[in-house]
Amino acid sequence: MYNLLRNILFLFDAEKVHYFSMNILKAICKISFIKWIIHNIYKAEYPVKAMGIEFSNLVGLGAGFDKNAKYLTELETLGFGFVEIGTVTPKPQEGNQKPRLFRLLQDKALINRMGFNNEGAEIISNRLSNWRKNNPKSKLIIGGNIGKNKSTPNEDAWKDYESCFIALYNHVDYFVVNVSSPNTPGLRALQEKESLKQIFKVLQNINPKKKSILLKIAPDLSNDQINDIIDLWREIQLDGLIVSNTTIDRNNLKTSKIEIEKIGIGGLSGLPILEKSTELVNYIHIQTEGNLFMIGSGGIFTAQHASDKINSGATLIQVWTGFIYEGPAIVKNIIRALKN
Question: Are 211 and 174 in contact (CB under 8 A)?
Fold first, then answer.
Protein backbone atom coordinates (compact mmCIF):
# COMPACT_ATOMS: atom_id res chain seq x y z
CA MET A 1 0.00 0.00 0.00
CA TYR A 2 2.73 2.45 0.97
CA ASN A 3 4.70 1.65 -2.19
CA LEU A 4 1.76 2.77 -4.32
CA LEU A 5 1.29 5.94 -2.29
CA ARG A 6 5.03 6.64 -2.41
CA ASN A 7 5.11 6.28 -6.19
CA ILE A 8 2.35 8.87 -6.49
CA LEU A 9 3.95 11.29 -4.02
CA PHE A 10 7.33 10.93 -5.73
CA LEU A 11 5.83 12.53 -8.85
CA PHE A 12 5.88 15.88 -7.06
CA ASP A 13 8.46 18.24 -5.56
CA ALA A 14 10.17 16.54 -2.62
CA GLU A 15 10.00 19.41 -0.13
CA LYS A 16 6.37 20.25 -0.90
CA VAL A 17 5.39 16.58 -0.56
CA HIS A 18 7.15 16.41 2.81
CA TYR A 19 5.03 19.16 4.32
CA PHE A 20 1.86 18.05 2.53
CA SER A 21 2.18 14.51 3.91
CA MET A 22 2.94 15.59 7.46
CA ASN A 23 0.11 18.13 7.50
CA ILE A 24 -2.32 15.43 6.30
CA LEU A 25 -1.10 13.14 9.08
CA LYS A 26 -1.47 15.98 11.57
CA ALA A 27 -5.06 16.55 10.54
CA ILE A 28 -5.86 12.83 10.76
CA CYS A 29 -4.30 12.55 14.23
CA LYS A 30 -6.63 15.23 15.55
CA ILE A 31 -9.36 12.61 15.40
CA SER A 32 -8.72 10.71 18.63
CA PHE A 33 -10.09 7.36 17.52
CA ILE A 34 -8.07 7.33 14.29
CA LYS A 35 -4.95 8.43 16.15
CA TRP A 36 -5.47 5.53 18.59
CA ILE A 37 -5.74 3.09 15.68
CA ILE A 38 -2.56 4.41 14.03
CA HIS A 39 -0.70 4.26 17.34
CA ASN A 40 -1.71 0.66 17.90
CA ILE A 41 -0.69 -0.31 14.37
CA TYR A 42 2.79 1.21 14.62
CA LYS A 43 3.67 1.12 18.31
CA ALA A 44 7.06 -0.44 19.00
CA GLU A 45 8.13 -1.07 22.58
CA TYR A 46 11.77 -2.00 23.14
CA PRO A 47 12.97 -0.06 26.23
CA VAL A 48 16.55 1.18 26.22
CA LYS A 49 18.37 3.34 28.74
CA ALA A 50 20.98 5.69 27.30
CA MET A 51 22.43 9.04 28.40
CA GLY A 52 20.62 8.47 31.68
CA ILE A 53 17.30 8.61 29.80
CA GLU A 54 14.63 5.92 29.39
CA PHE A 55 13.75 5.48 25.71
CA SER A 56 10.64 3.53 24.71
CA ASN A 57 12.71 2.12 21.86
CA LEU A 58 16.06 2.74 20.20
CA VAL A 59 14.83 4.03 16.82
CA GLY A 60 14.80 7.79 16.45
CA LEU A 61 14.17 10.28 13.68
CA GLY A 62 17.19 12.37 12.71
CA ALA A 63 17.33 16.15 12.65
CA GLY A 64 16.07 17.95 9.58
CA PHE A 65 12.75 16.13 9.30
CA ASP A 66 10.85 18.09 11.96
CA LYS A 67 12.96 21.23 11.99
CA ASN A 68 10.45 23.38 13.83
CA ALA A 69 8.97 20.82 16.27
CA LYS A 70 5.57 20.87 14.56
CA TYR A 71 4.94 17.14 14.22
CA LEU A 72 6.01 15.58 17.53
CA THR A 73 2.63 14.04 18.34
CA GLU A 74 2.32 12.52 14.88
CA LEU A 75 5.85 11.09 14.93
CA GLU A 76 5.30 9.58 18.36
CA THR A 77 2.10 8.02 17.02
CA LEU A 78 4.18 6.32 14.29
CA GLY A 79 6.30 4.66 16.97
CA PHE A 80 9.50 6.70 17.11
CA GLY A 81 11.33 6.42 20.42
CA PHE A 82 12.91 9.83 20.00
CA VAL A 83 12.85 12.76 17.61
CA GLU A 84 15.64 15.25 17.06
CA ILE A 85 14.31 18.67 16.16
CA GLY A 86 16.22 21.31 14.26
CA THR A 87 18.77 22.24 13.24
CA VAL A 88 17.75 25.30 15.29
CA THR A 89 19.56 28.62 14.89
CA PRO A 90 19.23 31.71 17.11
CA LYS A 91 17.54 33.81 14.45
CA PRO A 92 14.97 32.56 11.94
CA GLN A 93 16.37 31.94 8.48
CA GLU A 94 14.89 30.96 5.13
CA GLY A 95 17.67 28.59 4.13
CA ASN A 96 18.92 28.16 0.60
CA GLN A 97 17.04 28.85 -2.60
CA LYS A 98 14.46 26.29 -3.72
CA PRO A 99 14.43 23.63 -5.07
CA ARG A 100 16.80 22.24 -2.46
CA LEU A 101 15.68 18.65 -1.84
CA PHE A 102 16.13 16.00 -4.54
CA ARG A 103 15.43 12.27 -4.83
CA LEU A 104 17.86 9.79 -6.36
CA LEU A 105 15.45 6.92 -6.92
CA GLN A 106 17.95 4.47 -8.40
CA ASP A 107 20.17 4.90 -5.35
CA LYS A 108 17.42 5.15 -2.74
CA ALA A 109 18.98 8.43 -1.69
CA LEU A 110 18.34 12.12 -1.23
CA ILE A 111 20.44 15.20 -1.83
CA ASN A 112 19.58 18.25 0.21
CA ARG A 113 20.98 21.74 0.51
CA MET A 114 18.35 23.11 2.87
CA GLY A 115 20.70 25.48 4.70
CA PHE A 116 19.33 25.33 8.26
CA ASN A 117 15.92 26.75 7.34
CA ASN A 118 14.01 27.13 10.61
CA GLU A 119 11.82 29.52 12.57
CA GLY A 120 14.47 30.41 15.12
CA ALA A 121 15.15 29.45 18.73
CA GLU A 122 12.50 31.67 20.37
CA ILE A 123 9.54 30.42 18.35
CA ILE A 124 10.64 26.79 18.53
CA SER A 125 11.26 27.05 22.28
CA ASN A 126 7.74 28.37 22.85
CA ARG A 127 6.27 25.61 20.68
CA LEU A 128 8.15 22.94 22.64
CA SER A 129 7.01 24.46 25.92
CA ASN A 130 3.38 24.34 24.84
CA TRP A 131 3.74 20.78 23.53
CA ARG A 132 5.20 19.60 26.83
CA LYS A 133 2.33 21.20 28.75
CA ASN A 134 -0.29 19.64 26.45
CA ASN A 135 1.33 16.18 26.45
CA PRO A 136 2.44 15.54 30.04
CA LYS A 137 2.16 11.75 29.69
CA SER A 138 4.21 11.49 26.52
CA LYS A 139 7.24 9.19 26.60
CA LEU A 140 8.76 10.74 23.49
CA ILE A 141 12.37 11.82 23.98
CA ILE A 142 13.26 15.06 22.22
CA GLY A 143 16.74 16.04 21.13
CA GLY A 144 17.71 19.60 20.28
CA ASN A 145 20.02 19.89 17.28
CA ILE A 146 21.60 23.36 17.30
CA GLY A 147 23.67 25.32 14.80
CA LYS A 148 24.81 28.78 13.82
CA ASN A 149 23.17 31.33 11.57
CA LYS A 150 24.67 31.65 8.11
CA SER A 151 25.55 35.29 8.77
CA THR A 152 27.50 34.52 11.95
CA PRO A 153 31.29 34.39 11.42
CA ASN A 154 33.00 31.23 12.64
CA GLU A 155 34.92 33.08 15.35
CA ASP A 156 31.57 33.99 16.92
CA ALA A 157 29.88 30.63 16.30
CA TRP A 158 30.07 29.67 19.97
CA LYS A 159 27.69 32.54 20.77
CA ASP A 160 25.01 31.07 18.48
CA TYR A 161 25.35 27.62 20.03
CA GLU A 162 25.17 29.16 23.51
CA SER A 163 22.06 31.16 22.59
CA CYS A 164 20.21 28.10 21.23
CA PHE A 165 21.32 25.98 24.17
CA ILE A 166 19.85 28.44 26.67
CA ALA A 167 16.61 28.90 24.70
CA LEU A 168 15.89 25.16 24.37
CA TYR A 169 17.37 23.95 27.65
CA ASN A 170 14.16 23.36 29.61
CA HIS A 171 12.35 21.72 26.71
CA VAL A 172 14.67 19.06 25.25
CA ASP A 173 16.22 15.94 26.76
CA TYR A 174 19.63 16.12 25.11
CA PHE A 175 21.55 18.37 22.71
CA VAL A 176 23.43 17.88 19.46
CA VAL A 177 26.04 20.33 18.22
CA ASN A 178 25.80 20.35 14.43
CA VAL A 179 29.02 21.52 12.79
CA SER A 180 28.94 18.96 9.99
CA SER A 181 26.25 20.09 7.56
CA PRO A 182 27.72 20.79 4.13
CA ASN A 183 25.03 23.37 3.38
CA THR A 184 26.21 26.32 5.50
CA PRO A 185 29.40 27.86 4.08
CA GLY A 186 32.41 27.34 6.35
CA LEU A 187 30.48 25.34 8.95
CA ARG A 188 32.52 22.15 8.61
CA ALA A 189 35.66 24.09 9.53
CA LEU A 190 34.25 24.11 13.07
CA GLN A 191 34.95 20.36 13.27
CA GLU A 192 38.60 21.21 13.95
CA LYS A 193 39.62 20.37 17.49
CA GLU A 194 40.19 23.88 18.87
CA SER A 195 36.90 25.22 17.51
CA LEU A 196 35.01 22.30 19.00
CA LYS A 197 36.75 22.69 22.33
CA GLN A 198 35.64 26.31 22.57
CA ILE A 199 32.00 25.50 21.75
CA PHE A 200 31.75 22.54 24.12
CA LYS A 201 33.43 24.25 27.04
CA VAL A 202 30.97 27.13 26.79
CA LEU A 203 27.99 24.75 26.76
CA GLN A 204 29.33 22.54 29.54
CA ASN A 205 29.67 25.59 31.78
CA ILE A 206 25.95 26.42 31.45
CA ASN A 207 24.61 22.89 31.87
CA PRO A 208 23.38 22.62 35.48
CA LYS A 209 21.30 19.47 34.92
CA LYS A 210 24.19 17.84 33.03
CA LYS A 211 22.11 17.06 29.97
CA SER A 212 24.09 15.13 27.39
CA ILE A 213 25.67 17.22 24.63
CA LEU A 214 26.55 15.20 21.55
CA LEU A 215 28.57 16.08 18.49
CA LYS A 216 27.29 15.24 15.01
CA ILE A 217 30.16 14.51 12.64
CA ALA A 218 30.53 14.21 8.88
CA PRO A 219 31.40 10.89 7.24
CA ASP A 220 34.02 12.69 5.14
CA LEU A 221 36.52 13.32 7.94
CA SER A 222 40.07 12.08 7.60
CA ASN A 223 41.48 9.62 10.14
CA ASP A 224 43.52 12.45 11.65
CA GLN A 225 40.38 14.54 12.14
CA ILE A 226 38.53 11.60 13.66
CA ASN A 227 41.44 10.94 16.00
CA ASP A 228 41.38 14.62 17.03
CA ILE A 229 37.70 14.22 17.96
CA ILE A 230 38.55 11.12 19.99
CA ASP A 231 41.30 13.11 21.75
CA LEU A 232 38.74 15.84 22.43
CA TRP A 233 36.39 13.26 23.95
CA ARG A 234 39.11 12.24 26.37
CA GLU A 235 40.12 15.81 27.12
CA ILE A 236 36.74 17.44 27.81
CA GLN A 237 34.55 14.37 28.49
CA LEU A 238 32.45 14.65 25.36
CA ASP A 239 29.11 12.91 26.01
CA GLY A 240 28.89 11.18 22.66
CA LEU A 241 28.68 11.35 18.88
CA ILE A 242 26.09 11.05 16.16
CA VAL A 243 27.73 9.17 13.31
CA SER A 244 27.09 10.49 10.77
CA ASN A 245 25.72 13.46 8.85
CA THR A 246 25.32 13.56 5.06
CA THR A 247 28.25 13.22 2.67
CA ILE A 248 29.55 15.38 -0.17
CA ASP A 249 30.94 12.25 -1.87
CA ARG A 250 29.30 11.36 -5.19
CA ASN A 251 31.26 8.21 -6.03
CA ASN A 252 29.65 4.89 -7.05
CA LEU A 253 26.15 6.23 -7.59
CA LYS A 254 23.74 4.59 -10.03
CA THR A 255 22.20 7.94 -10.94
CA SER A 256 23.84 9.41 -14.03
CA LYS A 257 26.61 11.98 -13.65
CA ILE A 258 24.59 14.35 -15.81
CA GLU A 259 21.68 14.21 -13.37
CA ILE A 260 24.00 14.60 -10.38
CA GLU A 261 25.63 17.65 -11.93
CA LYS A 262 22.21 19.08 -12.71
CA ILE A 263 21.18 18.76 -9.05
CA GLY A 264 24.37 20.45 -7.88
CA ILE A 265 25.80 20.77 -4.38
CA GLY A 266 24.28 19.35 -1.21
CA GLY A 267 24.51 16.57 1.33
CA LEU A 268 23.84 13.02 0.14
CA SER A 269 21.91 10.66 2.42
CA GLY A 270 20.38 7.20 2.10
CA LEU A 271 21.71 3.80 1.04
CA PRO A 272 24.94 5.11 -0.58
CA ILE A 273 26.13 6.34 2.82
CA LEU A 274 25.33 3.16 4.76
CA GLU A 275 28.65 1.37 4.48
CA LYS A 276 30.80 4.47 5.05
CA SER A 277 28.89 5.59 8.14
CA THR A 278 28.79 2.08 9.65
CA GLU A 279 32.53 1.67 9.12
CA LEU A 280 33.05 5.00 10.87
CA VAL A 281 30.99 3.82 13.86
CA ASN A 282 33.09 0.67 14.02
CA TYR A 283 36.40 2.56 13.78
CA ILE A 284 35.48 4.92 16.60
CA HIS A 285 34.17 2.05 18.72
CA ILE A 286 37.47 0.21 18.38
CA GLN A 287 39.62 3.30 18.98
CA THR A 288 37.69 4.18 22.15
CA GLU A 289 37.42 0.57 23.35
CA GLY A 290 33.66 0.87 23.33
CA ASN A 291 33.59 3.70 25.85
CA LEU A 292 32.27 6.50 23.63
CA PHE A 293 28.49 6.62 23.33
CA MET A 294 27.24 6.79 19.74
CA ILE A 295 23.99 7.16 17.86
CA GLY A 296 24.29 5.44 14.50
CA SER A 297 22.82 7.31 11.57
CA GLY A 298 23.13 7.01 7.81
CA GLY A 299 21.53 4.66 5.32
CA ILE A 300 19.32 2.66 7.67
CA PHE A 301 16.41 1.11 5.76
CA THR A 302 16.06 -2.35 7.29
CA ALA A 303 16.46 -4.24 10.56
CA GLN A 304 19.72 -5.69 9.22
CA HIS A 305 21.10 -2.19 8.67
CA ALA A 306 20.07 -1.25 12.20
CA SER A 307 21.63 -4.40 13.61
CA ASP A 308 24.88 -3.70 11.77
CA LYS A 309 25.07 -0.23 13.35
CA ILE A 310 24.44 -1.67 16.81
CA ASN A 311 26.96 -4.47 16.36
CA SER A 312 29.49 -1.89 15.19
CA GLY A 313 29.12 0.10 18.40
CA ALA A 314 26.01 2.30 18.27
CA THR A 315 23.59 2.28 21.21
CA LEU A 316 20.74 4.10 19.47
CA ILE A 317 19.97 4.59 15.79
CA GLN A 318 18.33 7.29 13.69
CA VAL A 319 16.51 7.02 10.39
CA TRP A 320 15.57 9.76 7.93
CA THR A 321 15.88 8.89 4.25
CA GLY A 322 14.93 5.30 5.06
CA PHE A 323 11.68 6.60 6.57
CA ILE A 324 10.87 8.35 3.28
CA TYR A 325 11.53 5.28 1.14
CA GLU A 326 10.31 2.51 3.47
CA GLY A 327 7.32 4.28 4.99
CA PRO A 328 5.69 4.58 8.41
CA ALA A 329 6.22 0.92 9.35
CA ILE A 330 10.01 1.30 9.45
CA VAL A 331 10.22 1.64 13.24
CA LYS A 332 7.88 -1.28 13.94
CA ASN A 333 9.67 -3.48 11.40
CA ILE A 334 13.10 -2.77 12.86
CA ILE A 335 12.01 -3.30 16.46
CA ARG A 336 10.10 -6.49 15.68
CA ALA A 337 13.15 -7.98 13.95
CA LEU A 338 15.55 -6.93 16.72
CA LYS A 339 13.34 -8.62 19.30
CA ASN A 340 13.50 -11.96 17.46
Answer: yes
Query: Does 1 have pLDDT greater than 90?
Result: no
φ and ψ of 17, to 5 deg: -65, -35
Question: Cα–Cα distance between 93 and 150 in angstroms, integer?
Answer: 8
Catalytic site residue from 125, 181, 212, 244:
181
- Angle, helices 32-42/14-29, rounded to nearest 10 degrees: 110
Does residue 129 have an active-site annotation?
no
Torsion angles phi and psi, residue 111, rounded to 5: -120, 130
Distance between CA atoms of 247 and 233, rounded to whole angstroms? 23
The H-or-E segment that residue 54 falls in is strand 53-55
DSSP 308-324: HHHHHT-SEEEESHHHH
The 10s digit of each residue's pLDDT in 290-324 is 999 999 999 999 999 999 999 999 999 999 999 99
DSSP lists the bridge partners of residue 82 as: 60, 141
Q: Any idea what DSSP says for residue 118?
A: B
Name residue 163's beta-bridge partners: none
- The model's pTM is 0.97
Contact call for residues 249 and 87 (beta carbons, < 8 A): no
Q: Each residue of 234-279: pLDDT tens digit?
A: 999 999 999 999 999 999 999 999 999 999 999 999 999 999 999 9
* 197/161 Cα distance (integer angstroms): 13
CA angle 314, 247, 68 (to 5 degrees): 75
Q: What structural domains and CATH numbers belong to the chain?
A: 2-339 (3.20.20.70)
CB atoms within 10 A of CB 255: 18
